[in-house]
Amino acid sequence: MRRSNQLQKIIFMLCFLLMVSYLMPVWSQEVKWIKIGSLHNWFREDGCEPEVGRTGLQADQQDGLRWPAQYRKQDNIAAKALWIGTTNFTDAEQYGGNTYPIKVVHVGPRGWDVEREFIPVTFKMIGRHDHPLVYVDGVSGSELMWDDLVDETDPELPCDRLIYNVVNTSLGITETRKVMAFAQQHHENYYIYEYVFKNTGNVDKDAEIEKPNQTLENVYFSFQYRYAVSREGADATDLNSPRWGINTMLDTRGEAKPSDGPQYKGDYDAWLKGNTQADSLRCQFAWMGPHSNAAYDLVGGPDVKYKTGRLMSPQFIGVVTLYADKSATDKSDDPLQPKTTTYQQSDDPPTRPNDQFDVARMAEEWKWMTRGHRLPRHAEAVGTGFPDKFEGTPGGFSNLNSYGPYTLGPGDSIRIVLAEGVNGLNRQLCEELGKKWYEAYSNPNNTYTFELPNKTTTTNKDEFKNAWVMTGKDSLFKTFGRARRNFNLNYNIELPPPPPDFFEISSGGDRIRLKWSTNAESDPTFAGYRIFRAVAKYDTTYQEIFACGKGTANSGIVNTYDDMTAVRGFSYYYYIASFSKAENGSLQSSMFWTRTIEPAYLRRAPGEALSEIRVVPNPYNIRLRELQYPGERDKIMFLNIPGECTIRIYTERGDLIYKIDHNDGSGDEDWNCVTEYGQVIVSGVYIAVFETPAGEREIRKFAVIR
Q1: pLDDT confidence of residue 387
Q2: 528: Cβ–Cβ under 8 A, 6 or more apart, which residues?
Q3: In 325-396, at which residue ranges do the beta strands (DSSP E only) sit?
Q4: CA quadruple 460, 466, 469, 472: dihedral positive or negative?
Q5: N or C: which terminus of the chain has fewer CB atoms within 10 Å of its end residue's CB?
């Protein structure tokens, strides 16, 4: 019997390993990050970024388009999709050789097929220069040293990062995608996507052309965007559905004509022809709307859970069309593209994993792609209601743009250029405005007067909050305008000098020393350096602590700086920026090039005697933790300790709960008040036992008040 059970286990494990090996290609898509500006996103080698397409984890449904990326959990998207459709299409023999009245192939919003549908060929990242080497106390100290995977450098590159991506499809259309990112502070919150779709006749990964003579008719290129603003704000609501965008509000510009209704002043084509009242952009965008199950108005995501009021979801996110070919032979911009601008339910059947051999299924997808302009727009249709109740949706709505119909003969191609960006209220305003809103929310019997963006006043806290949040739309449109200007200039915008290619931070006994390389000084626009610092954590707001060069208090250029204002017991994070002086103001290199994610400390020499050991604070009082070590609320410090010792922490009754091996030679060590099992300690008296390698021991008692 035992041998039989063992055999069953072996068979089970073999089957499991076979299943895993079968599934691995599905989840082993190569991913590259672009993290050089305030907008961070990941990109996949099969040409689009579908739902949970990076990690495969539903917990990461909101994953990507992080802005402002210097803070945590700023993800604003749940899924993307790229569909390509055509009519009267005959499959290559390897896919069955059948003819379909409508043929649609997918990557996203759910599911993908990299063997038979969107087949990756080339995927690489090119940089104008590589990321700097950043070290803190001898260890790799920047996020880019792990995530900025540059395959090659090109000093003549017009942008700072370029992802070059080639994907064949089972339609014989080859997608070439270029994703461009800029680290200039006025252009760092958007990406420009240049797509070229060419009828190559190549339906698989190898170089052989399977369908060299096909002409494709009624071709549409359709992009979907399931925005969910934002991960931090959604988490704080304690509602599950905002995570997938059920209360996302959507809107569109550039498609409606006066004949569609008196509220519309003209489409983008009319604006180009001189109608100043018409829409000057052709775009779709989104923001966090209200939710019927929330106890308060969710616009902007005010923080009620943690009682700060801070607006956690101020982002406006969207995509703008910069260019679309009129036809395969007319390479001028078609102002009437995209031909479809619609919003569709994000959980409807067409969003599920595709079947490119299912005639009925593809016919339904085709209806979405060719729907035309859906009016009234989503925001107009929802009005003052709740988007999570609109049309009984279980998952909210996604924006959808389709370009076409095009005819592509052998070798013909279509070029489409888009920009995707995020903007909104900055962190300081989110804190200030949210605090005022929360005070009124917490004191409903009091009357408050609030100033609106137009300088008038109101006593309605939600009107005040929402009016300020909605200024984010204008900020997003400004971002779109900058992207369009960049495109129209053929990406010839002014760039800042490069950052130092080496940045080193060393903790010391009475100072923290910063050193950096001189490479930036050879740039003709270089004017100096600025150093910024944050306390307690790196994903927060930074303050300038030093500058040298033109226009600063230190006109001479230096390559070292000693931070003498650091306080013992605190964690410090830094970045250095090179800056230029220009007629239009100063440009400086992005914080993300050199921002440290490892802490530096002011370290004191080891204690001279065990009797000098101190526990700070003692007692530790949770009610005073913001005053004890701001930003590190549960930290206790052991000071004047030997440079090498073992610290064991016991409960009053003698249970060992944590052990620290201190061996960095300093006189400091910290503890975050958790046991070795990750449990936060409770109120009580604790005992710390310090023991040196020579066997010397010292005991300290300390109290914790929770």
Answers
A1: 98
A2: 547, 548, 549, 550, 551, 552, 557, 578, 579
A3: 340-345
A4: negative
A5: N
Nearest to 647 by CA among 660, 637, 635, 656: 660
Which residues contact residue 648 at a Cβ distance below 8 angstroms, ignoring those fewer than 6 apart?
656, 658, 659, 660, 688, 689, 691
Residue spans of the domains in the chain: they are: 22-424, 427-475, 502-593, 610-705
Element (H, E) at 467: helix 461-469
Phi, psi for 313 (deg, rounded to 5): -135, 65
* Angle made by CA atoms 492, 494, 497, in degrees to the nearest 5: 125
Kindly report the backbone phi and psi dihedral angles of residue 418, in degrees, each rounded to the nearest multiple of 5, phi listed first: -125, 160
* Residue 687: both structure tokens together: 């005992």
pLDDT attached to residue 510 = 82
- Rounded CA gap, 666 and 643, in Å? 5
Q: Which two tokens stand for residue 299?
A: 């616009």
pLDDT, position 511: 87
Q: From CA 516, how far away is CA 520, in angstroms rounded?
A: 10
**Half-sphere exposure of residue 380, counting CA atoms within 13 Å on the CB side?**
13
* Measured distance CA(214)–CA(667) in Å, rounded: 75
Q: Is 512 helix (H, G, I), strand (E, B) or coil?
A: strand
Tell me which amino acid residue 463 is: E
As a whole number of angstroms, the distance between CA 319 and CA 311 comes to 23
Angle at 550 between CA 544 and CA 554, to 5 degrees: 60
Structure tokens at 292: 């019927």
Report the C-alpha gap between 58 and 107 in whole angstroms.
18
Query: What is d(CA 396, CA 428) in angstroms, rounded to the nearest whole number?
Result: 30
DSSP secondary structure letter of residue 2? H
Q: Is the pTM of this model over 0.85?
A: yes
User: What are 416's strand-pairing partners?
Assistant: 195, 324
Phi/psi at 40 (5° precision) = -115, 140
Q: If you classify domain 610-705 with CATH, what class do you get?
A: mainly beta
Spatial CA neighbour of 388 closest among 240, 251, 284, 285: 240
> How much is the pLDDT for 498?
97
Determine whether domain 502-593 maps to CATH 2.60.40.10.
yes
Our measurement of the distance from residue 41's CA atom to the centroid of its chain's CA atoms, rounded to an integer in Å, reads 5
Residue 514's CB is within 10 A of a number of other CB atoms, namely 23
Judge if 502-593 and 610-705 fold alike in CATH terms: yes
Distance between CA atoms of 383 and 377, rounded to whole angstroms?
Answer: 10
408 burial type by CB count under 10 A (0-12 exposed, 13-18 middle, 19+ buried): buried
415 φ/ψ sector (left φ>0, alpha ψ -120 to 50, else beta): beta
Polymer length in residues for the chain: 706
- Longest Cα–Cα distance of the chain, Å, equals 89
- Amino acid code (one letter) for 127: G
CB 303 within 8 A of CB 310: yes
| Below-50 pLDDT ranges, the chain | 1-27
For residue 633, what pLDDT is reported? 76
Determine contact, residues 78/49, Cβ cutoff 8 Å: no
Which amino acid belongs to residue 35?
A: K
